[in-house]
Specification:
The protein is an alpha/beta fold and about 350 residues long. It has 15 helices and twelve strands.
């Protein structure tokens, strides 16, 4: 037990960038290998309980941050259950206790990022969770036909109505400044992971914050984009893996990532048919297309079926990411890199 804890303390410094359930799901796996995790999370959400608190209290949306903290929490099961509890009746219907708890901390803290840090301490999380910016931002989407909409929660419905692809997204106001701790985490990282998560509403908004792309570009860390297992209704119908990568590059810069990790696990026919009815389909990596874009596309069996939905398996995904990092360390150093890199070993579960 002591040996395992020691290796996690000296594990690689991993920065994950995104939002939504895909990010928090991956964090559950990564925390089993390293304590040096920094999750940089979008604050563009304006729907659901987060949207209600944003409108009523003028605070930044807590939902994605709360989910990441819950994924990294090391508290008693009762506390974790309490943070996830959602009220079913009255004016609080649909609101989670975790959101309200963070809202209360925000009310007694000098800034939102301090409130997030205090909640992280209460939950005794592994690593840290950081809002990408403390600026009150809104997400604007412009479609290929010229139509546009403001508000992350409205993009799905507008895309359905316009029946065309998203051309680009932008933050309002333009060029919000990144949280200094987020830039510092990227600069110190051994591995930077984009995704998994909604392409235009969870991943790209982070890249539109001033300083984030520049920090990634200047980093010597291994940079990986984890592609979604399936295309997403109301956002990326008909997209290939290359389409995802092009969208990221168009909103940042070419060469931002070294690898793209895709799923190779088969999707059961009955589940694939249900997704197809919604216009969604599995995403498969194409090594030749990756070469043309200067990216190594790697396909690994990292998916699972969870209550009828196709999700990333947090354990398998974490294993593949850590193996990629370990293999890179071997190539660079010729052996296990010195310092904290030699303190962990990862084996793929078959």
């Amino acid at each position: 037990m002591e040996k395992r804890r020691y290796s996690k303390v000296r594990g690689p410094r991993i920065v994950v960038i995104g939002g939504g359930h895909g990010l928090s799901n991956m964090l559950r796996g990564l925390k089993e290998y390293t304590e040096n995790i920094s999750a940089i999370v979008t604050v563009a959400d304006d729907g659901g309980g987060s949207g209600m608190l944003r409108q009523d209290l003028g605070m930044l949306p807590p939902g994605d941050l709360r989910n990441c903290m819950a994924a990294l929490a090391n508290t008693e099961p009762l506390m974790t259950e309490l943070m996830a509890f959602r009220f079913k009746d009255g004016t609080l219907a649909g609101q989670s206790f975790g959101n309200l708890f963070l809202a209360a901390l925000n009310g007694i803290s000098p800034s939102f990022d301090v409130a997030v840090r205090r909640m992280s301490e209460v939950l005794a999380i592994t690593g840290r969770v950081l809002p990408v910016t403390t600026t009150d931002v809104r997400l604007k989407a412009t479609f290929e036909n010229g139509a546009s909409v403001i508000g992350e929660s409205k993009i799905f419905y507008c895309k359905k109505q316009e029946d065309c692809r998203i051309a680009h997204v932008a933050l309002l106001p333009d060029h919000p400044k990144a949280l200094p701790e987020a830039i510092e985490a990227i600069q110190e990282a051994d591995m930077i992971v984009l995704g998994p998560g909604s392409l235009y509403t969870s991943i790209i908004p982070n890249l539109l914050v001033d300083g984030i792309v520049e920090a990634i570009q200047s980093s010597d860390a291994l940079k990986i984009y984890v592609c979604n297992v399936m295309t997403q209704e109301g956002e990326t119908e008909g997209y290939s893996v290359a389409d995802h990568l092009r969208a990221i590059y168009e909103h940042s810069s070419e060469g931002l990532v070294d690898y793209c990790l895709c799923n190779s696990s088969p999707v059961p026919k009955n589940i694939a048919e249900r997704y197809a009815a919604e216009g969604a389909e599995p995403l498969r990596g194409d090594a030749k297309l990756g070469e043309s874009m200067g990216i190594e596309i790697i396909s690994r069996p990292v998916a699972m079926i969870d209550h009828g939905y196709v999700r990333h398996d947090p354990v398998k995904l974490a294993q593949e990411l850590l193996l990629l990092h370990a293999e890179r360390s071997v190539r660079i150093a010729g052996s296990w890199a010195p310092g904290h890199h030699d303190a962990y070993r990862v084996e793929r579960n078959n």
